[in-house]
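Give me structure tokens for this 266-residue protein.
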Amino acid sequence: MIQEYFGLNHIPLAKNGPFLMENPSFCVLKERFHRLLEHPGIGLLTGEAGVGKTACLRHLCASLNPHQYEVIYLAETQFSRFDVYRQIAQNFGLDPHYRFAQLWRDIKNHIRERVENKSSMPILILDESQNLPPSFFQSLPSFLNFNFDSQDMLIVWLVGHPELVHILNRQAYVALSSRIQVRHQLEAVDNREAFSQLISQAFKEAGATASLLSGSGIELLRTSSGGKPRYAHRILTESFALAAKKGLNHIPDEVIETAILQIKGG
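Here you go.
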């Protein structure tokens, strides 16, 4: 294994590694996440691919009391409205009805029962929401209408690429847009000092006992990844493989440059 060759527990910034995104953008998201817990409704989280949107929400949800909150996460959103609601029903542990109207009522009754009888607030996270069909966006405001629209019984996070903001600003979705209570654009870690700290912490958490990258190597990693953890991890993974093949015990800048070229198909 490559990580064993370098004496690491995992490749830095890996998905199964510790959460390391305690930066200003995440802190703002954290505050808005908890605000939505107190005042349920819709949250909109956008950001470019690879900045860590899903990782941030996964980290925030992991700290919740499972007796108070029921978290449902869906990423398979490029289907019909009926298919999306079927997935919601299945994740709630329901047997999806073949008729849409009954399926709709079953899910809403389940949510009402959770909130009123078990004091448990459902949290529905819809990742890749830019792929949701228009009919789903149009139906969501009605789906969230409980008790003559006098009570909020579901927290929904719409998560997606920046284009999702433009989609929801369309006139056809004004009813949905008006229900969005918190909005946040998660930014990449493109500040030089912040990125350097992120990489240093990532290597420390991975078990590195010595510096494996030079300062210029870290800067090369920052500029090539755009400060996005997912892409930085891909470059590091390729760099470690190349360095191990050469019998090196560190990652020279030229190895990082080669890794970048290979990832780009050069």
